[in-house]
Amino acid sequence: MTMPAAVLFGSIGTLAETSEMQREAFNRAFALAGLGWRWNRSLYQALLKTTGGINRIEAFALSRGQRVDARAIHVAKTQIYHQLLKEQRLGLRDGVAETLAWARENGIQLGLVSTTSLGNIEGLLEALAPHCRRELFDYLGHGGLVERPKPDPEAYRHALAWLDLSPSEVIAIEDTAASLSASVGAGIATVAFPGENVYCDDFSLATSVTPVLSPDVILEAACADEKQTAYG
């Protein structure tokens, strides 16, 4: 099997399961704003098809015929989320630690290709220390580096340019169908590693789908991509 030159984790959700923590932060921010909104789990799962927290708030408000300051609400949500990261115990998702260690031992570059804020990324890595540190990543992408968030492929193209690699040399890992569209749109073979609130998403564009990450899963995706390239 061919070793990829880099493995690109597509979001903070591919490293740690934060979806329910994020939902709680949204609901607390809504309460502070006096909106009377509460996103239950099934509603949140549907809303996750809209990428970006501000966009999600705006879309929900529009569906209710309301006008809100989505940016201010999202600022409050982010502050609450960072506090929850400090208060609650957080660990890496199944197989992530082993995959990170394997990549490092084999000279495979690591990237985090997110379009969330740098503050959110730093907050997560601080919560995951010492098991997952900033120094592990050769490339750390965030929303401030691109004009168009996922599902636009710009974030992945930026990462490829930074690492000086072609799409065929890397494997991406994504946790939602919307984000998967970004990596596939950049021509990158992608392993779908669904988060707990997106199991019903359509991951048919993925090279493979797995509930547990591992070096074998990465290598199998690289091999499948190599065969597809060879046989057109």
Automatic annotation (TrEMBL):
Keywords annotated in UniProt: Hydrolase
Superkingdom as given in the UniProt entry: Bacteria
SUPFAM superfamilies, sorted: HAD-like
Database matches in InterPro entries: CbbY-like (IPR044999), HAD-like_sf (IPR036412), HAD-SF_hydro_IA (IPR006439), HAD_sf (IPR023214), PGP-like_dom2 (IPR023198)
Keyword Hydrolase: yes
GO function terms (MF aspect): hydrolase activity
PANTHER family: CBBY-LIKE PROTEIN, XYLULOSE-1,5-BISPHOSPHATE (XUBP) PHOSPHATASE
Name of the molecule in the record: HAD-IA family hydrolase
Source organism: Roseibium sediminicola
